[in-house]
Design goal:
The structure holds 3 protein chains of 3 kinds. Chain A has 13 helices and 19 strands. Chain A is an alpha+beta fold. In chain A, the strands form 4 sheets. In chain A, strands 1, 8, 9, 10, 11, 12, 13, 14, 15, 16 and 17 form an 11-stranded mixed β-sheet that branches. A 4-stranded antiparallel β-sheet of chain A has the order 4-5-7-6, covered by helices on one side. In chain A, strands 2-3 form a two-stranded antiparallel ribbon. In chain A, helix 7 (276-285) runs antiparallel to helix 9 (325-334), helix 8 packs antiparallel against helix 10 and helix 12 packs antiparallel against helix 13. The radius of gyration of chain C is 22 Å and the shape is elongated. Chain C starts with a helix and ends in a 9-residue tail after the last helix. The chains are: A alpha+beta, B mainly alpha, C mainly alpha.
């Protein structure tokens, strides 16, 4: 019966495809290649970009507008005390190898993620789980040790997708998920191929096959799109070329926002940055607009605190750190640095950091601060800045959604230690009503703005250049994803 | 001849052993924790420790060296830390891009250089010679990545005769692959052709002054016949050496070109592996390249000795 | 023949002069960015135009000349100061263990793909002009060692050297008093050629980001920055590229011209 249905469905699709003669394959380029294909075992965003929502799915999922909706869990009940979540799973869902998806797989995935030896990069998402029980094949009960208002949000992350014990051994090179596309091939250094999953539980995608290509070099990216080697480039790395694409009728340019707060990180425990007046001076020495124009060619939204401006809970605190080099010099003199000082500015590879860094160094020089630039690869940056905290200044974009909580961790690389803030974050976790959360978030944003913990530069924009006939590509990046399930050609 | 070959063979083996030690020593010094890089900015200490144990970073140095060498001799280059697949497979895949590219560039540069060099030598001192020499002077001075940039701008973006880069894979057709390698090969070949043309010319000019040429002329051969029948053949010897050396350079020097044209070859593999601190891949690929160069030198030495017996005494 | 020498000398001196002048004056200060004026084509105010940060390109090229010349010159210095003594030593002790050792060492360094090693060195010790000098310099050593040894070997057979040996002079003194002055011409010519190769190597390293770091100007890095702007503002890519071509051309012409002028029978190595 199932086979018959599939045949009818397949022929219907074939017929309509024939009639419409619309293109049904797509080649999408992204900058970075995933190092492996296990979104639950490694932190590389690229893994999620390729596989999230395409090959793998979680209990809940992100939509293009950032909202969290039902995924593999059709519905759920939350207990009064906020400690028990009962998920009702969809039935008839199969993995790409034919095995059924049921509560055992959910338990397996969650337990695997929170295990002692788990290599999951976001273990903190699962830390609050005290128990996972299989009630029946379609029902899973998750018990938390304390209430967590973000639990459903957390379960939508790429690190929380559902995997199966039957296919877990090879997951890094042969990912088997429940998504609308199944993985076909990975030619390392070049491309990943996937094709439509005709046995998908939900709406079958319009695309029959998809190829992801990896082009990190901005020039190569430009050339590839111009030469029509790729149909779309998500996260186009050279904003200076966007006007050219906009003027070209073959292409469309989608510029949306991400959850990436791009900041000038200041090492709060390294003198003279342990003095709030010096940090305030740095904040006033920076001209955000010049950085956005010079480094990002105008793409990006200025921010005054560590929060995404498109988020309804955002508070505009830019007035606390306006561009005022005279004030900066005055503050430095008051703090005892009338002659300025020298410090290090360590930059990771992305061009927002490299270009932004050159511009900031020049702006700091105007007020007497000499910032010595070191251009580092990611591995070195992690080693020197993130682990060893051996830096004065750095520039990086924090792309995890709703991550203002990092300011409550005194060991986090910029080493901000404010007990009042830490208490505030604990209160936030325990608060589940939206009004209460908004108020707490507003207070949090103000504290870190007035404490000048970091230089808040801009919210990273994401630009997608695509052929004009493509529909359904995400405008924004509420999470790292290139969700092709809703993409189709209109030709 | 046998003795010469044997002595060169011993020399080759020694070089390989020392090279492997040097490579291993240098790479072990590189700072940077691969575990941190792989797991990213938010990873926890316990997950890092788990990954480090999995990668064998806690073994003593000499154990790791011996394991490595023994593995390579058996064809096992270990597993890449970033991709979690056997390095030997990755190298095998990429070699089929870098090797054809190097050969293609070599053929192009030879096809350009030989006629140019011979022509210049035959027209020595006259306009033809000056023209060729000026062109080669320019060719030698142009950085190949800049040349590549300009070619992409003209032939890929504006004229759209070629794709801007990327490699479709040999399984999609031989000519498709060759087309993708054309602009890169030309970028690599041009400066090499310039150098080769100059060497060809000066080598020929030396030959033309030699006694045996004068004898041939005295015997009644025309200048042209002397040139072709004797001079060119003998002039090939230093030229062959240069070609042999250039091949190694082309294989390794393609790093930048592979980046510009986003070709999945050995050069880009090294670059990415170094950025990712994937030490196993870096060690193996560098060792492979060194091996190729040493072996090619050995082969050229033997060929040289086979042709010119005088060289066999200079062990 | 002479025309090449003169043209080469003029080009080389032009860049050397630009580099020296840049210590006291450049048309604009390249450390102050002027973003609203970015990407202007060449005009009356900025003779070669401005780059993506509004910096004057002529000033950048003058400062870049400084970087390229310093790196290439010091790299040649390393090659000569270490390679020549090694070559002289090997020639003086021809056939002995030290000769073998030096020649094998040379072959070993020649066997390594130089760009990969340069990338490794800068990855270990950090990117920057100093490490670029070391990375390029290391590969100059075997060139000079091999050349010196070859030239010295043929000199050792000559009568005036035999006379010196008979008179009791040590090999060391012979090497430095008699052999060295006679190979000086060869060294100068080879030095010029290695200098031009050094300029190209520095450009390549800077292009992939491993040479001199900002705010120090560097031709290679200017090219890398210009890549995505080539179709928008071609002058940003053309100017530094032309600078490299002209400088290298000048040095090559100078080297060839010197060789022809000093001793037409000289053979120089070109790796």
């Amino acid at each position: 019966m199932k086979t018959f249905q599939t045949l009818i469905g397949a022929s219907a699709i074939a017929l309509t495809a024939g009639i419409a003669s619309a293109q049904s394959d797509i080649t999408v380029a992204i900058q970075l290649e995933p190092p492996n294909l296990d979104p639950t075992g490694g932190a590389a965003q690229a893994i999620d970009s390729v596989l999230y929502s395409n090959v793998f799915e979680g209990l809940t999922r992100f939509m293009a507008d950032g909202s969290v909706v039902a995924g593999l869990a059709e519905s759920w009940d939350i207990s009064e005390d906020g400690l028990t979540y009962t998920f009702n799973l969809r039935s008839g869902v199969t993995f790409h190898d034919g095995t059924l998806m049921d509560a055992d797989d959910v338990k397996f995935s969650l337990d695997r993620a929170r295990a002692e030896d788990s290599t999951n990069a976001q273990k903190a998402l699962f830390a609050g789980i005290s128990d996972v029980t299989v009630t029946d094949p379609q029902t899973v009960t998750v018990t938390l040790s304390e209430p967590n208002g973000s639990f459903l949000f957390n379960m939508a992350w790429g690190d929380a997708v559902i995997v199966a014990p039957e296919s877990i051994a090879d997951i890094a090179s042969n990912p088997i998920g429940t998504g609308a596309f199944k993985f076909d091939d990975w030619v390392q250094g070049d491309r990943i191929e996937m094709s439509r999953n005709d046995a998908y539980w939900g709406a079958v995608p319009a695309l029959e096959s998809a190829t992801f290509r990896f082009i990190s070099d901005p020039t190569a990216a430009f050339a590839a799109v111009m030469a029509e080697d790729v149909d779309a480039f998500v996260g186009f790395p050279a904003p200076e070329n966007l006007p050219q694409f906009e003027a070209d009728p073959r292409f469309q340019v989608l510029t949306g926002n991400t959850e990436g707060e791009t900041i000038l990180s200041i090492n709060n425990k390294m003198p003279p940055f342990d003095n709030v007046m010096v940090r305030k001076a740095v904040a006033h020495a920076i001209d955000r607009q010049a950085i956005i124009d010079g480094a990002m060619f105008g793409y990006g939204t200025p921010i005054g605190t560590h929060f995404a401006p498109h988020n309804p809970d955002y508070v505009d605190l830019i007035s606390n750190s306006q561009y005022d080099p005279e004030l900066a010099k005055k503050l430095l003199a008051e703090a005892g640095f009338a002659d300025g000082f020298t410090t290090t500015l360590k930059l990771p590879p992305p061009s927002y950091a490299r270009r932004g860094g050159e511009i900031i160094a020049s702006q700091l020089r105007e007020v007497g601060i000499t910032a010595e630039i070191s251009n580092l690869e990611w591995a070195q940056w992690l080693e020197e800045v993130f682990k060893a905290k051996d830096f004065g200044l750095s520039i990086v974009s924090h792309t995890e959604p709703m991550d203002i909580g990092i300011y409550a961790n005194p060991d986090y690389y910029f080493q901000y230690d404010n007990p009042k803030f830490q208490e505030l974050m604990e209160t936030l976790t325990a608060t589940t009503d939206p009004a209460g959360r908004s108020a707490i978030l507003a207070e949090a944003q103000e504290i870190i703005s007035l404490d000048y913990v970091n230089g808040y530069l801009f919210e990273l924009a994401i630009s997608t250049v695509a052929k004009a006939e493509l529909n359904g590509l995400w405008l924004n990046q509420p999470t790292a994803a290139v969700d092709l399930t809703g993409v189709s050609w209109s030709n | 001849m046998i003795r010469y070959a044997l002595s060169r063979l011993i020399s080759l083996t020694l070089s390989l052993i020392v090279a492997s030690m040097v490579i291993f020593a240098v790479i072990e010094v590189i700072p940077g924790d691969p575990a941190s890089f792989m797991l990213g900015v938010n990873a926890r200490e316990d997950t890092l420790a788990a990954l480090r144990a999995e990668m064998g970073l806690d073994q003593p140095l000499h154990v790791r060296y011996v394991d490595w060498v023994w593995g390579m001799l058996r064809g096992d280059f270990g597993n890449s830390w970033t991709y979690k697949t056997p390095v030997a497979d990755m190298i095998a895949d990429r070699v089929w891009v870098s090797l054809p590219l190097a050969l293609y560039a070599l053929i192009l540069s030879t096809l350009l250089a030989f006629p140019a060099g011979i022509y210049a030598a035959s027209r020595r001192g006259r306009i033809g010679d000056t023209a060729v020499m000026s062109a080669t002077q320019l060719g030698v001075a142009i950085p190949n990545f800049w040349f590549a940039m300009i070619m992409v701008l003209i032939f890929a973006i504006n004229l759209r005769w070629f794709s801007a880069g990327g490699f479709p894979g040999w399984d999609r057709g031989f000519w498709g692959g060759m087309k993708a390698l054309t602009l890169p090969a030309i970028s690599l070949a041009l400066p090499q052709a310039a150098i080769l043309a100059r060497v060809m010319r000066s080598s020929l000019l030396d030959m033309l002054g030699e006694d045996f040429i004068r004898t041939a002329r005295a015997k009644g051969l025309s200048k042209r016949q002397a040139l072709w029948r004797h001079a060119v053949r003998n002039a090939l010897i230093p030229v062959l050496t240069i070609i042999g050396l250039q091949f190694s350079f082309l294989l390794a020097g393609g790093i930048i070109i592979e980046q510009v044209f986003f070709l999945p070859g050995l050069g880009r593999l090294i670059f990415q592996a170094i950025s990712a601190r994937d030490l196993i891949v870096v060690e193996s690929v560098v060792m492979l390249l060194v091996f190729v160069v040493i072996v090619v030198n050995f082969a050229v030495d033997l060929a040289y000795a086979a042709v010119d017996p005088r060289l066999r005494t200079q062990a | 023949m002479k025309r090449g020498l003169i043209l080469g000398a003029v080009l080389t001196l032009m860049f050397v002069a630009a580099a020296l002048v840049s210590f006291v004056w450049t048309p604009f200060d390249i450390e102050s960015l002027d973003i609203p004026n970015k990407l202007h084509a060449p005009n009356a105010k900025n003779i070669l135009g401005t780059d993506h940060f509004g910096r004057d390109i002529l000033s950048m090229i003058m400062m870049g000349a400084r970087t390229s010349i310093a790196v290439a010159l010091l790299a040649v210095g390393i090659g000569m100061c270490i390679g020549m003594p090694l070559g002289l030593w090997a020639a003086a002790r021809r056939g002995a263990f030290i000769d073998e050792f030096i020649m094998r060492g040379n072959d070993l360094i020649f066997a390594f793909p130089s760009l990969v090693i340069a990338i490794l060195i800068t990855a270990v010790f950090g990117a920057g002009a100093v490490n670029a000098i070391i990375a390029i310099g290391i590969f100059n050593i075997p060139v000079f060692a091999r050349l010196t040894r070859g030239a010295a070997l043929s000199l050792w057979e000559r009568d005036f050297i035999l006379a010196a040996r008979v008179s009791g002079k040590s090999s060391f003194r012979i090497s430095y008093e008699h052999i060295l002055p006679n190979i000086a011409n060869l060294m100068i010519v080879q030095g010029t050629i290695q200098f031009s190769l050094g300029i190209l190597a520095e450009a390549a390293l800077s292009y992939i980001g491993l040479g001199a770091q900002p705010p120090t100007a560097s031709w290679g890095r200017m090219l890398a920055d210009a890549q995505t702007l080539v179709s928008l503002a071609p002058h940003v890519a053309l100017m530094p590229g032309m600078a490299i071509v002209l400088m290298v051309l000048g040095l090559n012409l100078l080297g060839d011209g010197l060789r022809d002028w000093l001793d037409p029978r000289m053979r120089v190595a070109r790796t």
